[in-house]
Amino acid sequence: MKELIKIDDVEKYYGNGTNITKAVNRVDFQVDKGEFIAIMGPSGSGKTTLLNMIATVDKVTAGHIYYENVDITEMDDDALADFRRESLGFVFQDFNLLDTLTIEENIVLALSLRGVEKKEIEKRVNDITKRLGISKIRDKFPYEVSGGQKQRCACARAIVNNPKIILADEPTGALDSKSSQMLLETFQIMNEELKATILMVTHDAFSASYCKRILFLKDGKIFYELVRGEKSRREFLNEILDVLSLAGGEGSND
Ligand code: ADP
């Protein structure tokens, strides 16, 4: 598969003098196009810091991050803002939908702002809302739908722009187990049918078991990697729980 992102010896330190926290400590890995990858690790292991650097909202202390061979650590803030808008899609734990806009308006907002043609917008929204099972709630407001539906709307908003990658930070964090499962199945559809590349940060083994590959972080370093391959999701989940117990971290099987 073709390389999309290269994380090259990335470090992020907080503090100074003798009081330094190595939040991310010399991390190397790559993400290929079409991957569905999870970054797992206990609280404080550096997951969010790493994701924020990949998402261009936080700067590296040292090292480089390349998207298709372009070094984003060398870009200025304006270029980064453009890059973020055009190339990245986000799904957050707390949905980040605008309450005064309908589900459909939330999904198309970024496209409208970019001046994409109305017909093209309509075609994309029809297609995506149908694929994600939310076409019936397009005219509702966020407060009128469930948490799971809100999160699928956030997924539709993330993918409608055809981003290079979708970045998700604990996307099931605010959902009950049934809605979590539906969201993870939505991610699977986005990855397998809509060919989206997805990178998800989670501390939850059940969520990670839907991915194709998992990187485990501990104390700011990658200490293990698992690839699902031909394994069933249940087998993969057991493997993940084994790694977590080795690492002494949290795991959940709900
Ligand atoms: P995780 O997402 O795995 O819970 P974080 O990336 O949030 O971990 O944090 C990694 C480490 O860096 C922790 O020790 C945390 O306290 C520290 N850290 C994160 N952000 C800051 C900050 N803005 N200032 C100081 N320390 C921070």
Report on the structure:
- With 254 residues, the chain is α/β, with parallel strands linked by helices.
- The chain has one domain (3-247): Rossmann fold (3-Layer(aba) Sandwich), CATH 3.40.50.300.
- It is 36% helix and 25% strand.
- It contains eight helices and ten strands.
- Helix 3 packs parallel to helix 5 and helix 5 runs parallel beside helix 6.
- The longest helix is centred in the last third of the chain and has 16 residues, at 177-192.
- It is globular.
- The two termini are 33 Å apart.
- The model has no long low-confidence stretch (mean pLDDT 91).
- Bound molecules: adenosine-5'-diphosphate.
Secondary structure elements and their pairing?
Elements: E1 3-14, E2 21-32, E3 36-40, H1 47-54, E4 62-67, E5 70-71, H2 77-87, E6 88-91, H3 103-113, H4 118-131, H5 147-159, E7 165-169, H6 177-192, E8 198-202, H7 205-208, E9 213-218, E10 221-227, H8 233-247
Parallel strand pairs: 3-8, 3-9, 6-7, 7-8
Antiparallel strand pairs: 1-2, 1-4, 4-5, 9-10
